[in-house]
Amino acid sequence: MIKTINNQDNKMKKIIIASMAIAIFTTFQACKKDEPAEKNAVVKNDIPEFFKESEEGSWGVNQPTISRILTSTARISKPTDLDFNPTRDGELWIVNEGTENTGGSTVMVTGLDSEMPTTDYRKDQNSWHFMALPTAIAFSENGDWANSTGILDANRNGGSFTGPALWSGDLDIYAKPSGGNGSHLDMLHGSPYSMGIASEKDNAYWIFDGFNEHIVRYDFGGDHGAGNADHDDGVVQRFTNITVKKNGSIPSHMVMNKDRTYLYAIDGGNNRVLRIYIGSAEKVKNLPLTNEVLSDHSEWNADFKVISEDEFFNYCGMAINGNRLFVGDFDNGNIRCIDLITNQELGRIETGIEGMTGLTVYNDQLYFVSYTTNSLYKIEAR
After folding, report:
1. Domain containing 79 — which CATH number?
2. What mean pLDDT is predicted for residues 289-316?
3. Lower CB density within 10 Å: C or N end of the chain?
4. How many domains does the chain have?
5. How far apart are the C-alpha atoms of 252 and 195, rounded to whole Å?
6. For residue 43, what pLDDT band results from cuts at 50, 70 and 90?
7. Minimal CA–CA distance to 366: which of 328, 332, 314?
8. Residue 321 belongs to domain spanning
């Protein structure tokens, strides 16, 4: 009997020892499995303009820093837009609205990363006409730029004689005496209340035509030189199937993607954002000339899609960086980031700055101006 008990004890000991070994081995394996999980934690950097790279659980927790770079002391006054000159590193231009009696002006900013950026304020001698209540500015890759005009008649005669104006990025030409009518390089006059502008290439630009309520493509052709007046090589193509509505005097900004296949336009009066596939453009018919002699005045159609719509978001500013589109709310300064692959919102921030008009991106950093505070701001990711 005693011998039987001892055998059972031995069996029990073996079972206990085996169980402990299995438990230790299982725990050890579990620890080994946990180690790679820590090393391979999911890291996010979906919106580098808002947030710095971090693990998924903590990404986006630290809101970006909003820094005011310049104020009205730099002669920023009712700014409507801003854009970087692609031919000179870090050179930012801001366009001021001015008044119906004075016309608009510009402030060029360099040394943005320094404690005291350098500014260059300029007003053309006939900005009263060529920069009448400017709503937007867009640089071409050739270093020249154009503005849209937010007025019904640049001559103030009760007509509809106004549209985009072309300017030189050469500082020895722009806002310098030309011996002619200001320093503008060209102007076409078929789009009163132009609320936004985007550069396509060379002297070709897209316009939000708030008077005729559709999108228009302008090609100035060869410019007529500073201060001259030959417009007869101009091309005006009206995309009448893309109907838009202006939002009072608030700009409706526009941008093109890097390879110039898509135009993105804020349709402010309808609280939405449009994506227009310019490769789908088809001519419908020729149109009678309006206000001036042109090389071509015609009606066109193109495919478009609404990619964002919100009646409670007062769309105004717009910027693009890769596959990320940024849109700003004029009322409260909120900025949304939209993924252009999925058309889904990636994230948003609240700047708390009222009157946000123009937005732009440079080196993965967002800059914007406020019409209300007369200031330039930079968003720094955290």
Report:
1. 2.120.10.30
2. 98
3. N
4. 2
5. 5
6. confident
7. 328
8. 55-380
Residues 113-146: pLDDT tens digits? 999 999 999 999 999 999 999 999 999 999 999 9
Instruction: With CA atoms as reference, report the closest residue to 178 among 168, 187, 188, 189.
Output: 168
Q: Which amino acid is at 18?
A: A
380 Cβ neighbours under 8 A, 6+ residues apart: 64, 65, 66, 67, 365
Phi, psi of 2 (to 5 degrees): -60, -40
DSSP 243-308: E---BTTB---EEE-TTS-EEEEEEGGGTEEEEEEEEEEEEEEE----SS--SEEEEEEEEEEEEE
From CA 182, how far away is CA 174, in angstroms rounded? 9
Answer whether 183's CB lies under 8 Å from 227's CB: yes
Q: Residue-wise over 303-317: b if at least 16 C-beta within 10 A, else e?
A: ebeebbeeeebbbbb
- Same domain, yes or no: 184 and 214: yes
The string of pLDDT tens digits covering residues 9-33 is: 444 444 334 444 434 333 334 343 4
